Each structure stands twice: as C-alpha cells, then as structure tokens.
Amino acid sequence: MKNLILVLLLFLSLFSGKKNDGNFIDCEEMVLKTKAYQDTSTILFSRKKDNDSGWSIYKISPNGIDEEVIIPFKYGQGEYNPAIAPDGNTIMFNSYRYGGWKLAVYDTNTKEVSKISKKLNYYVNGVFSSDGKKIAYERNVERSTHIFVANSDGTKEVNLTSEISNDNRAPSWNSNDTSILFYYKKNRTNDIFAIDVRAKITTNLTNNNSGNDFNPSISPNGKQVAFFSDRNGYLDVYVMDINGENQICLTRSLHNENNEYNYYTDSNVYWIFKVSWSPDGQYLVFSNIQGDNIDLFTIKKDGTDLKQITKTPKSEYTPVWGILKN
C-alpha cells in the first residue's frame, strides 16, 4: 500500500508539477517527504508492563503494529500522558519518579529524562504550543486546579484561570498560540471553553446542558476541535468547528453496556480518556471502552474508517499522535 501511494504521488506530480511561480515541483522531494511522514508518524500511550505497579510509555504505529516501550516505568505510579514537541525531539510526560505527579521531558536523542516542574505541587496534562516555546498544564493550588502557561523549561509560569473556576482541566493550544481550550464545570455540567492567553477572556464553545464535555484537542490547522462527551449516556468522541458550531458525534457504533458513562458518577477515570489528531489532521486516535478494558481506536474525522488498534488484556491510556525524529 505504501509503495502504491508513492507511485500515485509521483504520477500525479508529472501532470500537475508546476508551482504558482511557474517552477516545476521537485517530484523526488515530494516522494521523500511523504515517505518520511509515513515512516515517523507514531502514537504514544501509557500501559502497565508485565507486573509493574505503574505505567510505562509505549509507542505504536497508527496501524497497530511495531509496539515498543520508549519510557519505562521508574517509580510509584509510573509515567503517563505523553505530549510530543513540534520539533519531534522531545516528549513531555507525567512522572511519579520525583514524588507525586510532576512534568518531565524525555530527549529522543540522548534518551535522558529531566524534571521541568518547579514547585512541589502536582502538575499534569502538559502540552506544547505550536512553536514549542511554551507549555500549558494543570497545577493544583491548595484545593483548586488551574491552567498555567510557562516557558518550555517550566520557568515564568502564569496562572490563566485564577479568576474563573476552582477546577480547570485539560489545556489544548490553538494553532496560533493566542488561545487555549480547556474545560470546567458551569451550570452543573462541564463545557469546553476557549481562553485568550493575554486578555484571559473566556468563551463557552459547547454550551451543553444535557451532559459533560471534556478533554478537548484542537486540530493541527486550528479549525476543528475533538472532545469527549457523555451527553448521550455513553463515552463518545465529538468533533466541532473551532467556534463551537456543527457538533457531531463520531462514535455511536461503539455504544455498548461497557462504555455507558457519566463524568461525575465515573469521575475517577476521566483522566484516562484522551483524543488526539493525526499530524495531517485527517484522523483521530482515542481511548475508549469496548470490552472489559480500555483500548485505542483510530477514526477518520468524518466518523468513517473506525479501527481498534490495541487488543491486549491490559488497558491503554492517554494516547497522542505525532511525529518523532528518532
């Protein structure tokens, strides 16, 4: 299949091989870039290995093969919730090795791990800005949870949500890095909100009173948002426009007694479920319940081509889709 795609690209480029400036496209360059994308696009996730008491971070190809551990379990509850930097050289993740949940980074070149959390508080759900210079994450402040922004090394952090709510979660940067999506409880249910990073002004995007919307993920081009919702009584993945319009459920075919879900009744597991876009913005990877454990699935953004890519006796958590350089 991969060879067929490359041949088709080469064929098409011969017949439409001019750029807007009149110069011919370098067909060999196009083929090499396409092949490089196919070879390096990968999905990271967390799972307990063998008899480990905590999680390791694995990588797997989008078709569900070539699975391997890249950040092994170290201590306590382990390692989970990976995020891939835009340059493909760094993985940010949660680690228990420093005493309680902290943010750490893994260098794919040196294979070294270093802590970037600066305080003793719990830090979770770290994500990179599109230029890789900033990160956003959750951090507890006494009994509250807030969204913070900091430099990529963890310095100069700013609390974005101190005046909004006591429970703010799951940040996701917009592609222009001027706003962040997150969720919090308003009028008895969770909604997805956008917050302007400078002005700290929020906009309710989902305005859903019939259920809870949570764990948003913005598409690479910044035009769409994927998120989870329990508004149908099940754990569903939705896609909507960046302004909150055209909210569409993609996962009705997964409805079964095992994935009946309510955010507050089953609140101890909300952090397990993540959705992430493929680098080209055409597909999603997400965790969901099909049988008696949690597996990973991919689906096209229009709801077609649903595939289960993990089928192990153990559960797989917090997937992210990106490109690694090494």
Describe this structure in words.
The chain has helices at 2-15, 27-40; strands at residues 41-48, 55-60, 68-71, 79-84, 90-95, 102-107, 113-115, 123-128, 134-141, 144-151, 158-159, 168-173, 179-186, 189-196, 202-204, 213-218, 224-229, 236-241, 248-249, 275-277, 283-289, 294-300, 307-308, 317-323. The chain is mainly beta and 326 residues long. It has a single domain (44-323), classed as Neuraminidase, CATH 2.120.10. The strands form six sheets. It has a four-stranded antiparallel β-sheet. A four-stranded antiparallel β-sheet has the order 4-5-6-7, with no helix packed on it. A four-stranded antiparallel β-sheet has the order 8-9-10-11, with no helix packed on it. α1 packs antiparallel against α2. It starts with a helix and ends with a strand. The relative contact order is 0.12. Residues 1-39 have low confidence and may be disordered.
Number of strands: 24
- Outline type: globular
CATH class, anyone? Mainly Beta
Here the CATH topology equals: Neuraminidase
Order of helices and strands: HHEEEEEEEEEEEEEEEEEEEEEEEE
Mean pLDDT value: 89
* Uncertain runs: 1-39
Strand content: 35-45%
Looking at CATH, the homologous superfamily is: TolB, C-terminal domain
- Indicate the radius of gyration in whole angstroms: 20 Å
Gist of the model:
This protein is mainly beta. It has a single domain (44-323), classed as 6 Propeller (Neuraminidase).
Salient structural properties:
single chain, 326 residues, mainly beta, Neuraminidase, 4-stranded antiparallel sheet, 24 strands, 9% helix, globular, disordered N terminus
